[in-house]
């Protein structure tokens, strides 16, 4: 679960440290106090998109650091060679110029990997998730995420991928027919030119090295001659002097035992000098210069570079272009034969895809029936007693009768009131109903995933009265198996908190600052009273708040006893 959240210079929050607990964590505060900034901070530290606008005005950088229990991400960390002990620490820094950096336990990682890790740790239900539910293009993904067998999905995707590759090859070969003669002439010209060039990988480097040697022939010869002369080419050469030194050291060693090793050392050095002198002599004897060879090398290099400019490729690229041109010419010349074979292969693979699609459709229908039952049960518990929720699965239609996601079109239908036929959620659901549908789906999905923590940003939108009470109870029930963090304005939900945090905005020295503090039991009473009656807190609103908190505690106790 999420244990600690540290924020520096994020929007109006100059600095905040929040220690979350297990169960239901509630965040309340006045509108504009900065509640959603905490959610923005969580998005950032989990690898979400960030911008310079997130950095507090006047600050050089913003920092978000979050500490999690490591177990849910242990496998991921091991695969990415990140050592984790007692805590998994995520850190995101955003500079004032918009650049950002990410670290996990001190190890730098790209934001894409941080997002991947974040999906294992926290599920955030943002304010726009309800609108996503209206997008029927997402309903198929919701259904598959709920209960479609991963093996059926994988089998279909593999079959469809093979089919798509065959179709692509067919389209490519058919396109050749329109420009067959022109393409053939062009490819043959390329092949002829590149074949005559007799390309060889590494040739350019070899030629360049040899050309540089020939270009500096005189300087090279002079240097070799001088080095050889100093080593072994005159009376006072290094070898002659070393030989004399060895004799002198021998005589000295006869009188001083400490010098016995010196003659041997000089002898070894002399042998090294002899080897060096012989190497120089042999290299010089084999060294020759030819104007014809130099011109031939220059001509060859010019040819290679001309080809590289023409085809916009290096030496390896030219060789690959020749291979590609030969392969493509073969495809064109044998296109008719291949097209006949492709038609048979496509027909055969189409049957394989349809068979896999049928299996997938059956799996989706089974998952849909189960999803309908569970969502209806959840929604009835959220004060929608007459609700009907239906997963409509219809064929995609047209030819070939399937697409990359299968042969099905999926959309969710809803009837919120008795006697009404189920219809599109976008046309039937009110704002409060949409919030409860999304909460129901989240709760159903949460039963199947291993993500230990969930965040709800104002899940109470459009909800009030008994419905708000049921939403609070549902969140409390969910928090018995997962850590739940919820931003709310409703006392019915806030009273269910296991940990209640107040977010307040105030001015200091002409700057707006936001603070986050966990409330004491008395503080919870006053905050619930404020949610009921605003700033006008009376003995009556305080008594009402205490009664609501007592009722919430009784509900949680009864629910826990029922579980046990």
Q: Could you walk me through the main structural features you see in this protein, from its secondary elements to its overall organization?
A:
Helix 9 runs antiparallel to helix 11 (261-285). The protein has 20 helices and 15 strands. The strands form 3 sheets. It has a 6-stranded antiparallel beta sheet with strand order 2-1-4-5-6-7, with helices on one face. Strands 8-12-13-3-14-15 form a 6-stranded mixed beta sheet. With 564 residues, the protein is α/β, with parallel strands linked by helices. Helix 17 (465-478) links the parallel strand 12 (453-457) and strand 13. The mean pLDDT is 87.
Stretches where pLDDT falls below 50 for ≥5 residues? Answer: none
Largest sheet: 6 strands, antiparallel
- The strand count comes to 15
Structural class, judged by helices and strands?
Answer: alpha/beta
How are the strands ordered across the major sheet?
2-1-4-5-6-7
Distance between the termini: 23 Å
Instruction: Give the overall average pLDDT.
Output: 87
Helix content: 55-70%
User: What is the alpha-carbon Rg in Å?
Assistant: 39 Å
Beta strand %: 15-25%
Shape: flat
Q: Count the helices. How many?
A: 20
